[in-house]
Amino acid sequence: MSNTTARREGKPALNVTLQGIAGSPGIAIGKAYLMEHEVVDVVEKRFVAPKHIRAEVKRFKGAVKKAQKHLKGIIRDVPKEFRDHTYILDAHMMLLKDKMFYDGTIGHIERENVNAEWALKMTVDEVKSIFKKMPDPYFRERATDVVHVSNLVLENLLGTEPSNISDIDKRVIIVAHDLSPAETTQMQLEKVKAFLTDLGGKTSHTGIIARSLEIPAVLGLGNATQQIKTDDLIIVDGSAGVVILDPDEETLTRYEERKDLLEQYQAMITRSSHLPAETTDGFQLSVAANIGLLEEVVSVIDHGGDGIGLYRTEFLYLNRPTLPSEQDLFDNYRDVAEIMAPRTVTIRTLDIGGDKFVSGLELAEEMNPALGLRAIRFSLQSPEIFETQLRAILRAANFGNVRIMIPMISQVDEILEAKQALNQAAESLKKAGIPFKGNIKLGAMIEVPSAVMMADILAKEVDFFSIGTNDLIQYSLAIDRVNKHVAHLYQPLHPAVLRMIQHVVDAAKRAGIEVNMCGEMAGDPLNLPVLLGMELDAISMNPISIPAVKRIARMLSLKESKLFLEEALKRPTTEDVIKLVQDTYGPSFPKAAPFEPNQV
Ligand code: PEP
Ligand code: MG
Predict the structure, then answer these.
(1) Which of 40, 259, 407, 564 could form a disulfide with 351 if both were Cys (CB 3.0 to 4.6 A apart)?
(2) Is the CB of 351 within 6 Å of ligand 1?
């Protein structure tokens, strides 16, 4: 047994399993390193005499400057291989000077005559409550960015030292209550084997960075920092979201074998990730990527993505006091189109609503934001914002193979109105003599049950469908996609979900249009036989899932998958469908991908 796996002599192994959220795949075995943070929540309120207010404002400004300097230092010292990830730190730099954050805190000091720490806490509480009401989990989790940035300023105000991951000198598994993007970016692969956090979810920046750095991570463990001590031996299974504390011999051996298998497998699939996903009987499935940032395009190409099936365009509207200009959007979309050309880039129009994070977007609070003014509903009510984005996409289309996709369609009128807006945008560009590509493909996301039922009518109006299972499952099974209490009921292989997908595919095929899937369901190899059996034209997923999915597609045949699907559609429960997958493919899949049958 290696040193890292030596347990304390004489004590029985605890072998405690902790379940969290699978943040980034991979297995790591090693010693824990507990990062302890100052509890910055405990801030005292002091009244400041009017004659000292100016000095208090100055103290706050000084702390912000120092925080900027600290971030600049981290950005400067980031090793070359981490450079792709400094955009989050750039966003944090901007957030420090954000109107709501900076002017808001100064306003509190001046109006309420309070100390800078308390004024900052008031601002953070306000901003947090705004972010928390956002319908999209991605945006909700951006509240943590505000907390990370304010912690930096608070540490300066309180005179405490910011934690420094780069001080760690052994190869460890970091265990932290939460990790800021600044801290995650400082991680050095040769020192950090994996990390665990009490907080955070799949769409937190920490998770996003971990996946791009390919460091195994388990997030949202709740109270791991109270259960794990520095030097404890732990196993991290980032794919299953599992942590085993103080494992026994048998568990250790099992995971060491799985780790070896996984590493061999990853090396093998990466070598073949650029080959097409062609089944044994010659059907070519396009395996594309979902991205949210321009910077991820490199990872798409590295992992053999056949295109971009979903570009979530919300990020450019974040962390800024004003809306992005047409030029800002155009520059970004053009870069993605150019780098990916001749491969397809599917740009989804803004999927946002019910929030106030950009000045000028003052919307009412909503009781049920997931059912509220989001996505296309928001765009149609904000024609100027919509037109700016459509013009930018049409202009960028001149530089590659760009398609446009409309989210959250629930009735055909929305597609008709979106088409009208697209025609108007093209007309205005033409009038102004600005070059653009007019006849680009337009698609509808199918993620609301009413769109499933109307698929035959919708199919006459668009060039392609893309099934967004993340929302489709949420809306059809009545399961909040971010509520961990009902997470066990969120089942992609639920017979009702399968029937809906089949219904959409049938409608698309009858109308002769392309049908894709871009929900997370597409990235899990367990679901591949069913999706292949449906003969979807393309599926898109997180870039790192691409090599494994492509590899498994190459082992299957379309003909057999169709027969398999027929059987699967007869099964009455999710458990029956999963059992069928395991009985049929279990013996052959593990040789190709050492995954455990997923908890759907
Ligand atoms: C979906 O709903 O499946 C989807 C891909 O969109 P998002 O996750 O951005 O809502
Ligand atoms: Mg969606």
Answers:
(1) 407
(2) yes
